[in-house]
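The data layer described in this paper is built around a simple, fixed record for each protein. Such a record has a labelled line for the sequence and another for the backbone structure tokens. For reference, a complete record is included directly beneath this paragraph.
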Amino acid sequence: MIKVGLLVPSTNLTVEYELEYLYYKNILKHDKINCYVAKLDYSTSYKQNKIEFLKEISLDSTKKVKQLEYLGVNYIASFCTSASVVSDVKMINNPMDAILEEAKKKNIKKCMLVTPYDAILGRKIKEALEENNIMVSKAINFNLLDTKEYFEFGRYKLENHITDNYIKEYEDIIISCTNLPTLHIIENIENAFGTNVLSSNYCVFNKIISLNNKE
């Protein structure tokens, strides 16, 4: 049995929801992988100061890594994309690194970028992609603030917003943020437009799914 530790911001409602989806679909195997969630703490609210919030959960991740290691986990994954690009503390196996790795595998060079962030954080994600030779041909930032709004937006509105705004010239699609449910819409969008769709959760969970055959 492989033990996987998940570092998840305490404001995030989505990672466990996506995890349940993967087990339900038998994409993750109950007899192969057990997941242990460690919630990342903060003192500054996201609404008060986004950058400080992200730095604080990144810093807390170093403490939670030690707790997960005490449980004897074989692999640890982090779930906060924006923290991956704004904090000096690099979170282990973070979403941005996973996105870049998956984009390289799929030869993604150009994309429409979709985020729930404001323009400042959205620009930082855009810069991180373009520094790694992925041109952002279109950026959409929804500027969501409330964590429940993130969750509901991903479940019920995100797919329509993408399909309403996408044109073929944008080529592929990258969705940034682990607090947006995306796993249930990726196949639909790929089939509709014949394009690659990457999301933060898809890319991080893909690395975990690959452990199914490594026991």
